[in-house]
Amino acid sequence: MTGSLNVVVGITGGIAAYKAVGVIRSFVLAGHRVQVVATTGALRFVGRPTLEAISRNPVHTELYEGVAEVRHVAIGQAADLIVIAPATANTIAKLAAGLADDLLGNTVLASTAPVVLAPAMHTEMWQNPATQANIATLRSRGVTVVGPASGQLTGTDSGPGRMEEPDAIVDAALAAVSGETARTPGDLDGCAIVITAGGTREPLDPVRFLGNRSSGKQGVALATAAAQRGAAVTLIASHLDVPAPNGVTVIDAPSAAELQAAVTDAAPRADIVIMAAAVSDYRPAEVQESKIKKEDAGDELLLRLVKNPDILAGLAHNARPDQTIVGFAAETAHGDDELIRIGRAKLARKGCDFLVVNRVGWNEGFARDTNSVVMLARGGTIALTESGDKLAVAERILDILLAERR
Ligand code: C5P
Asked: 20 to 30 Å CA-CA from 6: which of 117, 141, 213, 278?
């Protein structure tokens, strides 16, 4: 349990600002001291007297007030925890850029305390690649992002973008302070997902391998998004270029054989298995005990390769009726029609529930932060076409899987 904390609650200009009152109240009732820093936009949505009464403290907004007490850094320096609820797309962008053009920006920059954001905005704004890239940047700096939840928004529309409920925000924030992994209840709560990511390396000798250009970014984005939405994620990792997210179980699987062993072990406990890793189709028939020497091999070296088992096809074949099995396929197709045709044939061969297909080439598809995919459902129907930041693509893929399971 955490002792009494100095909590800064940042409030920014969105309709969900009214729900910030519940966040402040929970902290105060739990015995913490709350200092509200509101943007001028926030005060258009919720009144200063309400915030002052509930927080039992003056509310600060202006950068050029309290200059004698160096308020622009003092609030951040004194904070044990900063919670920004709601966090608008604008504030998220400013924080990602490190801007300090208002009191909240200064407070965050001047603080070493954990920062927790509860985004709230319309679905289009949340899914915009700019917002997703900013969120990814903030997460990579250790910021905890709670929600957004999916549901009714301000207008008649509904979807991801609703601010998470105050109790969930407070729980995640206190967990962030006590060093626990903040786990957000979400639409994948209770769902066990196994995700493979990266590219396998098939050893030739103690120093060489046959490998591929997969960075693991799309698989890691899927793991990040699924964990954020409440799933229990097992990430089977094969040479990732990017760090695995917090809050997931990571199992290293350097080669196809090790990946097969890890997947075979984890899959029976999974509701969903997503095979995003690029698994080598072949491996050297013999692995040399010592380094192959050119003095011995001469001018021409022939490698004999043997086929690896198709892990995805095996999984699909043995899947329980309540399991969803998803494959990925990176193809060097010449256009979308060819890509979809190859994808449909592969989906039928593998027997999985979904196949996410993307185009690759010398200058396309690998190691980037964006992706462009077509997701095919059993029978070959197009369930999704999506382009954008890999995290945004991951969110859409999970939306489809969730809808199918429901
Ligand atoms: O046949 P192809 O390698 O294009 O299939 C790609 C899909 O199959 C990916 O989901 C990959 O993880 C999976 N795969 C597999 N076992 C292999 C090769 C690929 O599970 N030996």
From this structure: 141
